[in-house]
Each structure stands twice: as structure tokens, then as C-alpha cells.
């Protein structure tokens, strides 16, 4: 059955989404929620309690990386909620989140002091997070192309 939804006085047919899409949207929410929790934990922790290498990384982190981190997780969570609600506005929200993730982790390479104190093994996690954010963004585009978003 096709649902009709009026948005800005334009009627747009919306196709039913398959169950795997709902499962993927819930997984996206959980991923983004985990990022929000990690963000809150990181910005509220007592830095003096951190191991020296982590404290140095945090001390060398510029404000714009922390701001990009905030945008990445909070806008990403909003975009993932938009997916479960099947809203088109989730696409630009998830695109902004992906861009913020790239800026955030790009700082590891752009700020020499951070690059010097970051162990090579710590570079794999950012790549996985970027890949996950890109996959969620691609999911939103796919859902829109299939007519699952309104």
C-alpha cells in the first residue's frame, strides 16, 4: 500500500520499506548513540586521571576537532532518528555528520603534535568509524532512491 504524505503542499508517494531497512536504521541509531555516549564521557572526564599518552593527545586536540566530534555524533544521531522516521531530511543531516567525522579524524593528520603522539594502532578505529558513517549516509540515499523516505 502506498502512503501519501503532504510535505510543503506537495504530495509524494512513499513506498513501504523492507524490514531489513528498519533493522539497519535501528543499528544506525545504536551506532550514533554509542558515539554520543563516548563524546560525553570524553569531554567530561578528568584528564589528570588519563594515562600520559592519552592526556597528551587530548591536550593537543584543537577546539575545532572537539566541535567536529560534537557535530558528528549529535547530528548523526538526529539523522539516524530521521531514518527510522523515514524522513528525507536525514540525508543532509547524515551528510553533515559524515563530513564532521572526516574533519574530526583528519585532525590526527593535520595537527603534527597529535600525529606524533598517536600510536599507529589507534588509526584503525577512525577508519572504521568513517566507513560506518559513510555506510549510514549511503543507506539514506538508497532509501530515498527507493522511495522509502518522505
Structure, explained:
With 150 residues, the chain is mainly α. It has one domain (19-145). The protein is 70% helix and 7% strand. It has a two-stranded antiparallel sheet. Helix 1 (19-44) runs antiparallel to helix 3, helix 3 (63-84) packs antiparallel against helix 4 (90-110) and helix 4 runs antiparallel to helix 6 (124-145). It is elongated.
Order of strands in the sheet with most strands: 1-2
What is the helix tally? 6
Q: What is the CA-based Rg, rounded?
A: 18 Å
- Main beta sheet strand tally, sense and closure: 2 strands, antiparallel
Content of β-strand = 5-15%
| Tally of distinct domains | 1
Report the span from N to C terminus: 15 Å
Averaged pLDDT, please? Answer: 89
Q: Element order, helices and strands?
A: EEHHHHHH
- Percent helix range: over 70%
Number of strand segments: 2
Silhouette:
elongated
Low-confidence residue ranges: 1-9
Secondary-structure class = mainly alpha
Concise account of the structure shown:
By secondary structure, this protein is mostly helical. The protein has one domain. The chain has helices at 19-44, 52-59, 63-84, 90-110, 112-117, 124-145, and strands at 3-7, 10-14.
Element layout with pairings:
Blueprint: E1 3-7, E2 10-14, H1 19-44, H2 52-59, H3 63-84, H4 90-110, H5 112-117, H6 124-145
Antiparallel strand pairs: 1-2
Helix pairs in contact: 1-3, 1-6, 3-4, 4-6
